[in-house]
Amino acid sequence: MALRSDWSQRTCSMARGLDILGDPWSMLVLREVFFGNGRFEAMKARLGAADSVLTKRLAGLVEAGLLTRRPYDDGGRTRKEYVLTAKGEDALPVLNAVVIWAEKHLPAPSGQAHMFVIHTGCGERTSSADTCTACGEPLTATNTSWHSLSRTADPVPLATSGTATPDQNGTAA
Q1: How many CA atoms, within 13 angstroms, populate the side-chain half-sphere of residue 117?
Q2: What secondary structure, in 3-state letters, does the chain show?
Q3: Residue 96 to residue 31: CA distance in whole angstroms
Q4: What are phi and psi of 55, to 5 degrees?
Q5: Model pLDDT for residues 37-80, shown as the tens digit of each residue
Q6: What contacts 117, CB < 8 A, 6 or more positions away?
């Protein structure tokens, strides 16, 4: 999903990757889905995005194969939620890198405006996007948690392509 032009056919791998992952809204949508928040209204409330913005980003991420839609019953009718695919899970190191870089180089506007990458295997915070700096184990969606101080007092295990449906508040059950 290009910001201003289609980079999908460029000879540069970075340009092709940025065609999908270079849009801030798309990255924030992926963040929400990794947090287990895959329902449209819950994402919209958390992101503060307009319907048209969120709809476009979700469609682009589905088209690119990073997300898929899965039906769920809301008690009255069947709706769709967005879940990660294996391709979407593979984007985790990119999101981790952005978080780690921002924590290192950008001032937080408040004490609650921090987010950390935690390797659940050893319970330690890591400063590497793809490998735990404490124990050396590769990071995956199944063994990584994010600790967003503005969301919760505890780290949140990340959603995977096989994660259960989130609750009505858009958090992983």
Answers
A1: 31
A2: CCCCCCCCCCCCHHHHHHHHHCCHHHHHHHHHHHCCCCCHHHHHHHHCCCHHHHHHHHHHHHHCCCEEEEEEECCCCEEEEEEECHHHHCCHHHHHHHHHHHHHHCCCCCCCCCEEEEECCCCEECCCCCECCCCCCECCCCCEEEEECCCCCCCEECCCCCCCCCCCCCCCC
A3: 10
A4: -60, -45
A5: 999 999 999 999 999 999 999 999 999 999 999 999 888 889 99
A6: 96, 99, 100, 125, 126, 129, 139, 144, 145, 146
